[in-house]
Amino acid sequence: MTAKVIDGKAFAATVREKVAGHVARLKEEHGITPGLAVVLVGEDPASQVYVRSKGKQTIEAGMNSYEYKLPAETTEDELLAVVEKLNNDPQVHGILVQLPLPNHMNSDLVINAIDPAKDVDGFHISNVGLLGTGQKSMVPCTPLGCLMMLRDHHGSLSGLNAVVVGRSNIVGKPMAQLLLGDSCTVTIAHSRTKNIQDIVRSADIVVAAVGRPEMVTGDWIKPGATVIDVGINRIDAGEGKTKLVGDCEYSSCAEVAGAITPVPGGVGPMTIACLLANTVTACCRANGLPEPKGLTA
Ligand SMILES: NC(=O)C1=CN([C@@H]2O[C@H](COP(=O)(O)OP(=O)(O)OC[C@H]3O[C@@H](n4cnc5c(N)ncnc54)[C@H](OP(=O)(O)O)[C@@H]3O)[C@@H](O)[C@H]2O)C=CC1
Ligand SMILES: Nc1nc(=O)c2c([nH]1)NC[C@@H]1CN(c3ccc(C(=O)N[C@@H](CCC(=O)O)C(=O)O)cc3)C=[N+]21
Ligand SMILES: [Mg+2]
């Protein structure tokens, strides 16, 4: 079998189109322009790439983009002051503080200082608790993007066995909550999991978010399973070049899987599209307007 390629890049373009439509309506009918503020501390080159493309796509969707680039030596108090200013700015509907933060900062403290209503990453403890109890919340962008692709491919996810590899607060855990919410039987595997290959081989849906280049190989995959590869790993490609690979070995997994997301062009573009979607959702909620359908979990 050769897997169907789930084209995250194309899917993301359709999500951004929907977002742009809602933005246009908010402007015309209500005179409101959604605004997204992205805060980057330090000069990590990969983070700079993401922040640039977020800003560009925010503008393309018709929204206002505010970028705050702070030096690596910024103190936690200075960063908290920026967050507080954005919390109080009515033009700003979404706030994203790019992770990881420099080591001298407590990222939990910073994230929990963001107004939960503006927390478009869905990382604030209030949003985590709301998601875990099945209440309306801001849903983390990467898992939301994965869920949209899974629903699109499968229709219903009810009763399917899902294995999430990785238990981070930003991907693995919220992904597991969303899959549970859609009535999957969910297993979370991590670095201490025994017989991880056998567990992954039991899955109808595999979501890999480990940060280990090409760790999951085709022999781990049940024939016909759906493979969602969250990993973004830049590795040496020889001759002084680098390339981007996922946490799954694409060629071997694609031979066995029923469907698979590529890297690049899979989960990554959906993450940014969902960030824009969350910003529109936050803007509608802030203004007491009905929120867009099909852009939330
Ligand atoms: N496409 C996108 O939009 C995004 C992509 N990413 C990418 O996704 C990947 C994961 O990111 P993130 O969740 O932040 O990573 P973290 O490093 O925070 O978490 C990695 C998880 O993988 C587990 N793990 C590590 N090694 C193994 C192993 N050998 N076997 C089984 N489990 C293992 C860890 O287990 P333990 O807890 O036991 O240590 C941990 O739970 C990265 O490649 C990252 O770049 C991240 C965010 C967004
Ligand atoms: N507060 C916070 N929220 C995040 O959502 C967040 C973060 N911090 N820190 C870093 C990770 C990583 N992340 C990605 C987003 C898009 C792509 C993406 O668009 N990737 C392209 C390729 C990009 C390239 O070529 O480098 C693709 O997969 O096709 C990747 C990774 C969001 N993250
Ligand atoms: Mg994310």
TrEMBL record:
One of its GO terms (cellular component) is cytosol. It catalyses: (6R)-5,10-methylene-5,6,7,8-tetrahydrofolate + NADP(+) = (6R)-5,10-methenyltetrahydrofolate + NADPH; (6R)-5,10-methenyltetrahydrofolate + H2O = (6R)-10-formyltetrahydrofolate + H(+). NADP(+) binds at residues 166-168, 232. GO terms for biological process: L-histidine biosynthetic process; methionine biosynthetic process; purine nucleotide biosynthetic process; tetrahydrofolate interconversion. Its EC number is 1.5.1.5, 3.5.4.9. Residues 6-121 form the Tetrahydrofolate dehydrogenase/cyclohydrolase catalytic domain. One of its GO terms (molecular function) is methenyltetrahydrofolate cyclohydrolase activity. Pfam families: THF_DHG_CYH, THF_DHG_CYH_C. InterPro entries: Aminoacid_DH-like_N_sf (IPR046346), NAD(P)-bd_dom_sf (IPR036291), THF_DH/CycHdrlase (IPR000672), THF_DH/CycHdrlase_cat_dom (IPR020630), THF_DH/CycHdrlase_CS (IPR020867), THF_DH/CycHdrlase_NAD-bd_dom (IPR020631). It comes from the Bacteria. This is Bifunctional protein FolD. The keyword Nucleotidyltransferase does not apply. Belongs to the tetrahydrofolate dehydrogenase/cyclohydrolase family. Keywords: Amino-acid biosynthesis, Histidine biosynthesis, Hydrolase, Methionine biosynthesis, Multifunctional enzyme, NADP, One-carbon metabolism, Oxidoreductase, Purine biosynthesis. PANTHER family: C-1-TETRAHYDROFOLATE SYNTHASE, CYTOPLASMIC (PTHR48099:SF5), C-1-TETRAHYDROFOLATE SYNTHASE, CYTOPLASMIC-RELATED (PTHR48099). Catalyzes the oxidation of 5,10-methylenetetrahydrofolate to 5,10-methenyltetrahydrofolate and then the hydrolysis of 5,10-methenyltetrahydrofolate to 10-formyltetrahydrofolate. Residues 140-285 form the Tetrahydrofolate dehydrogenase/cyclohydrolase NAD(P)-binding domain. Pathway: One-carbon metabolism; tetrahydrofolate interconversion. Homodimer.
